Protein: 6-phosphogluconolactonase
Amino acid sequence: MLRDTLSAGLLSLLLATPSSAVLLWATSYNDHTVTSLNLKGRELKTVAKYTDCGSEPAWLTLNKGESVLYCLNEGWGGESSITSYKTLADGTLETLDILPVLKSPVSSTLYGPDKSGLAVAHYDTSTFSTFSVGDVTELALAQNETYTLAEPGPVPDRQSAPHLHDAVLDPTGKFILAPDLGADLVRLYAVEPDSIEWTELEPIKAVPGSGPRHGAFAVAGKNTFFYTLNELSNTITGYRVTYSAESAPEFVQIFEVSSHGAGGSVPEGTSAAEIEVSPDQRFVLVSSRFENSLTIPNFDKANSTRLPSDPIVSLKIDQRSGELGLVQEAPAGGRNPRGFSLNKAGTLVASALQDDNRVVVIERNVWTGKLGRIVAWATVGEGEGNGPNYVLFNE
Ligand SMILES: *[C@@H]1O[C@H](CO)[C@@H](O)[C@H](O)[C@H]1NC(C)=O
Ligand SMILES: *[C@@H]1O[C@H](CO)[C@@H](O)[C@H](O)[C@H]1NC(C)=O
Structure:
């Protein structure tokens, strides 16, 4: 009995990598595909590739309960679209619908009753749109708002117009936030009860010239915090969120720190990309592009030349103040980690390396918040640059 318990304990320790298959999907610009990947032990295998997400697949949103995957086509040439796919148990996808949409959708979130709404941020076209996706075979535009700027922001070459870069549902499911990199705002929308309709509230002010790109919430006991990762200043801004029954939620800025934590700095040309809060709400993870500050072992074991890597930075959330303390700067698995995501248990991080045509899966210690070795990797994308930009677990 004791021996069984011991060996079971040992086994679960040894099997930090999953024993049963885990499915992932990655989007990539340069081969214009959604790639289905199957992670088994230390192997990450390509299951299939799909081209119904148009010319520049850029983002994925999963409705796990309904086995539906939404893919945004950024459409650099202007032909943008949203594709809904049925996800099958073996990782393959079946196209349900393709809806042409306004140019440059870059991020989306499900919201509303039974996740029947999809909120989308459009970057180039300065627009927030929502779509009715209750009927997955008949996606339809529901509502939209396009913004303008009276004058360029402090970083004129990137802030000559509003650039919405993310759509984030708050933990109550009643509000959607859209960080606007061009306008230094986080736009805020109140979702109507029992509907996918929304009304706009007063936006949250971001630090001038910071260029908020992506955002993430953390719920720590009774405290709610909201963090934005700011692409232009390479900083993280923290807000304390206070809800009230009578009025709009309040977002009070509590700090702004380097993307590498308080006192940290980044080289010229760095461009912060993705922010995620760990499932246990104890850590913030951010990816940072164009630093090439770290290295990883060559995937060819016979080759001792190490490969360059940008970092994924892990920071610990003070559960009372919301402040962030640096835990680790770990290799993201290559260059230009535009998008990454965690599995539900928080034990794995999947990272898309846009400049290396590579997707890696990295192990993560849930307790310390530290990333460990690269568990598995796969080639995704084809050609020079602009390869895989996002990867998501089927969880
Ligand atoms: C906004 O929605 C209306 C229909 O409700 C549509 O005619 C218009 O083209 C949309 N504008 C954008 C920028 O998507
Ligand atoms: C070793 O790896 C480096 C970096 O990828 C590469 O440039 C070099 O050609 C490799 N050497 C051999 C012998 O394969």
Observations:
- The mean pLDDT is 95.
- The chain has one domain: 21-393.
